[in-house]
Amino acid sequence: MLPLSARPYLVRAIYDWCVAEGHTPYVLAATTIPGVRVPKGYERDGRITLNIGPRAVQSLDLGPDRIRFSARFGNQQQMVEVPLKALVAIFAAETHDGMVFGEPEPHRTEAPAAENGPDGAATPQPATAGKPSDPQLDREQPDPDAPPPRPGPRLRLVK
C-alpha cells in the first residue's frame, strides 16, 4: 500500500487528468473518519460520493492533508472537508478510471479508564491486566462466517 504522504500527489494528478480529458472527477470517502465534514443525509453506509468537478464546486483546495471545497446541497451552500486519510477512491464518473486507496484505518479510541463502582471505588481489573501479552494468545481468530479474503490487485500488460 502506498504511504499516506503520496496521496496528495496522486489525487492532484488524477483530478488534473479527469479535467483535461473532459471527465467529471468524483471522490469516494469514508464518513466515519474524524475530521470529515459532509452534509447530513447524503451519506450511505458510512460512505459518500462527491463530485469535485470545476462546475460543481467552488474554492476547491486539494491540500496536502485534505480536500476542501464549497458546494450546493439541496439549494444550500455548504463547506465540505475530507481528510486524505478518509479518501477511499478518486475516479472519473464517465469511465470509472481512477485510483482506489482502499479502506481507511478504523478510528481507534483510547482504552477506557478504570470504571468506578457505585460507591466511587475503582472496579478491580482482571488478574491479567498489566501482564505482558502472549502473542500466541493475542492472535485474532478468523471468523468462520466471513467471506474469503479477496486477492490483491493484479496488473495486466496491455499491448
Offer a quick outline of the entry.
The chain has 159 residues and is of the alpha+beta class.
Word description of this protein:
By secondary structure, this protein is α+β, with helices and mostly antiparallel strands. The protein has a domain at 4-100: SspB-like (SH3 type barrels, Roll). Helices cover 11% and strands 26% of the residues. It contains two helices and seven strands. The chain has helices at 7-20, 135-138; strands at 25-30, 47-51, 57-62, 66-73, 76-83, 87-92, 98-100. The strands form two sheets. Strands 2-1-6-7 form a four-stranded antiparallel β-sheet. A hairpin with a 5-residue loop joins β6 (87-92) and β7. The longest helix has 14 residues, at 7-20. The radius of gyration is 21 Å and the shape is globular. The two termini are 26 Å apart. Residues 110-117 and 121-141 have low confidence and may be disordered.
CATH structural architecture of the domain at 4-100: Roll
Structural class given helices, strands, pairing? alpha+beta
Give the CATH H-level superfamily of the domain at 4-100.
SspB-like
**What is the string of helix and strand elements?**
HEEEEEEEH
Largest sheet: 4 strands, antiparallel
* Total number of beta strands: 7
Overall geometry = globular
Q: Which fold name fills CATH's third level, the topology of the domain at 4-100?
A: SH3 type barrels
Q: How much of the polypeptide forms β-strand, as a percent range?
A: 25-35%
Number of helices: 2
In the CATH scheme, the class of the domain at 4-100 would be Mainly Beta
Strand order of the largest sheet: 2-1-6-7
Q: What is the CA-atom radius of gyration, in angstroms?
A: 21 Å
Distance between the termini: 26 Å
Helix percent reads 10-25%
Could you list the spans in which at least 5 consecutive residues all have pLDDT below 50?
110-117, 121-141
The average pLDDT is 79
